[in-house]
Amino acid sequence: MKLLSVAVPCYQSAGFMRSTIDALLKGGDRVEILIVDDGSKDDTPQIADEYEHSYPGICRALHQENRGHGGAVMTGLRNATGRYFKVCDSDDHLAEAPYLQVLDALERLERERTPVDLFLANYVYDKEGQRHKKVIRYANALPTGRVFSWEEVGRFRLGQYILMHAAIYRTDFLLSTGLDLPLHTFYVDSLYVYLPLRSVEKMYYLDTDLYLYYIGREGQSVQEDVMIRRYDQQIKVNRLMLEGVQLEKVAPKRKRDYMMNYLEIITTVSGVLAVRSGAEEHLRMHEQLWADMEKERPYEYRVLRHRLLGRLLNLKSRGARRFVIAVYHLAQKIFGFN
Question: Engineered SS bond to 38: which of 26, 72, 76, 184, CB 3.0-4.6 Å?
Answer without folding.
Answer: 72
